Amino acid sequence: MLEHLAVGGCKEESGGHRFSSTPRASRAGSAKGVERTDQQPVSSKTRPRETGRYNTERTVKTGSDLADDFKIRPARRGDREGVAELLREAGYADGADTNIMFWVLNHPEIDVFVAADSQERPVGYLSLSHRPQLRLRGRIATIDELVVGASWRDREVGTRLLESAVERAMALSAKRIEVSTADGRSAFPLDFWTKSGFQEIDSKVLRYSKLER
Hints:
By secondary structure, this protein is an alpha+beta fold. It has a single domain (5-33, 60-202), classed as 3-Layer(aba) Sandwich (Aminopeptidase), CATH 3.40.630. It has helices spanning 80-89, 98-105, 157-171, 190-195; strands spanning 5-7, 17-21, 58-60, 70-74, 110-116, 122-133, 138-148, 174-181, 199-200. The termini are far apart.
């Protein structure tokens, strides 16, 4: 599984791919179509209702070596340098300055999930935005960024981050979850998304060029 960068609304071109998923709760509380590849136990704290910040934290056991374990938790201001390093590795040298990080983390319609190693250092992150939409008669969620560090790829980090985002969207009663990927740029292959319950849709992403720098 390729885990590097998926971007919704950053640098994708109109020729990229756009995926959509409709979250529905099953008896087990998972999203319809989201394949869970293991049943390893995780610890979870209380999730808030629709209002308030997302406070769930879970530890993922990947093997006997504690150095391989990681946890999924909400991002915090102290993660700025770690997130910035992940963005630089992905080709975004100017990402995640202090002011922008504070803005994003405190935005009421954005949730950022971090995969942290045993030393609490970010090894991956996912940014999820959500807002109400008239035509859907409810809330739509967008995966804006999904990044996993090179040394932590192929270790289910991207999968676990995506699971947390889907669970958050379900808790918000979102009607749809979308993600846009760029041809030749995203390190997450199409089958990563389709196996996770997303379907490619007949749509193009257009950008107002006069705002580009």
